[in-house]
Amino acid sequence: MSPQRNDLSASDKELWQSLATGAAEPPPVDDMDFAAWIEGRVSAAEAAQIEASVAADPEMRRAALDIADVLGKPLPAVPEGMAVRARALIGFEAERSAARKGFWRWFLDWMAPSALRPAAVTMAAIAIAAGGFTMGGGLGASFAQQQSDGNGIQKAGSKSEVSTDISEFFASDGI
Amino acid sequence: MVDLNQIDLQALARGDKRSWDAFVGAAAPLINAMVRRALAPHGLGDEDVMDAAQDVFVRLCAQDFRLLKTYDPARAGLSTWLAVIARSAAIDHARRRRRPTQPIDEVPETALGVEDRHVEKLKIPQGLLTERQTLILRYLYDEEREVADIARLLKVDPQTIRSTQHKALLRLRAYFREGTG
């Protein structure tokens, strides 16, 4: 009896396992196409192509069943921290812009969109200047300060006279 | 919690923080379940599930959301596509975590002895079985999967799976009987 005859009398599983599919290695399947096939949203021709690839690859066969199974069941609770870690991957736009552009670029960007912003900045600058001026005692104090500075200059002048006299004294001694 | 279908994908692809946060909240349960399932046969625990899930999120937002931008809502639902991406990332993670191989000198000789039982298999000619018939026979005999699981995957009635299996076997028997008779 030939081996073929033995195979034919064997059980269905043994028959299958004694055979090898002679097809050439099918092309790899794109993730998007694989997802579409799992959902049954491909044409008959596309389905045949994808099924040839899935049939030829044990990993893809397991993937298809796993995915269909997970999608068809209620999902378990998410461990604490998983979402927190994932959310931290993306920062707020302001944080990312500041990190990318530096302060002055950020400041100019902030100023640009609205005409009110330069006005607000000007008003703030005037208020700060006026506050500082008032705290410093105004024009009266400024005048008094000038006077005081003038005396200081005079005193300094008399000091320089003294120092000139001392120089002359040393010079007369031939030092 | 926001549903995955309610996520503004355009805002998400632009890097909008609020959309990303909403997306993470909606996608985390599915990604967690898929990663957990993919890692289970590899004996990897909760810490690896966390790391592999983070790998999925990193892949999605890396290089200015390049991967996320390849998603096409007209082709498949976001959940299915995410499950495909998550499983793929989890398998890559498991491969990276695979234990280093043992040097061959440390393996006992008895463990290396392999009986030569190589038998030349008969080739099924191309076109004898349809791709679907081949797939179903592989699931039934190579993977030993249940008819109900295959039917759920292929979105057909379990009876259709049995009928396809029966027709495929009839073709095989007929071909090899004729070829040898």
Which features would summarize this protein structure in a list?
heterodimer, A: 175 residues, mainly alpha, 3 domains, 10 helices, rod-shaped, disordered N terminus, B: 181 residues, Rna Polymerase Sigma Factor, Chain: A, Arc Repressor Mutant, subunit A, 2 domains, 8 helices, flat
Give me the secondary-structure topology.
The complex is a heterodimer of chains A (175) and B (181).
Chain A: H1 3-9, H2 12-17, E1 19-21, H3 31-38, H4 44-56, H5 58-71, H6 82-87, H7 93-101, H8 103-111, H9 116-135, H10 138-172
Chain B: H1 9-13, H2 17-39, H3 46-69, H4 78-97, H5 109-112, E1 122-124, H6 131-142, H7 147-154, H8 158-180
Helix pairs in contact in B: 2-3, 2-4, 3-4, 6-8, 7-8
Characterization of this structure:
The complex is a heterodimer of chains A (175) and B (181). Chain A has helices at 3-9, 12-17, 31-38, 44-56, 58-71, 82-87, 93-101, 103-111, 116-135, 138-172; one strand at 19-21. With 175 residues, chain A is an all-alpha fold. In chain A, 15% of the residues are buried. The model of chain A is unreliable at 1-9 and 152-160 (pLDDT under 50). The mean pLDDT of chain B is 90. Chain B has 8 helices and 1 strand, in the order αααααβααα. The radius of gyration of chain B is 23 Å and the shape is flat. The interface between A and B is large, with 65 and 73 residues.
Strand content range of chain B: under 5%
Largest sheet of chain B: none
| Oligomerization state | heterodimer
Q: Which fold name corresponds to the CATH topology of the largest domain in chain B?
A: Rna Polymerase Sigma Factor, Chain: A
Poorly predicted residue ranges of chain A: 1-9, 152-160
Which series of helices and strands of chain B comes N to C?
HHHHHEHHH
Q: Outline the biggest β-sheet of chain A.
A: none
Number of domains of chain A: 3
What level of helicity do the residues of chain A show? over 70%
Distance between the termini of chain B: 66 Å
CATH homologous superfamily heading of the largest domain in chain B: RNA polymerase sigma factor, region 2, helix turn helix motif
Listing every helix as H and every strand as E from the N terminus to the C terminus, the arrangement of chain A reads HHEHHHHHHHH
Alpha-beta content class of chain B: mainly alpha
Secondary-structure content class of chain A = mainly alpha
Q: Ends of chain A: how far apart?
A: 137 Å
Q: Total number of β-strand segments of chain A?
A: 1
Radius of gyration of chain B: 23 Å
Q: Measured on Cα atoms, how large is the radius of gyration of chain A?
A: 45 Å
Mean of pLDDT of chain B: 90
Shape of chain B: flat
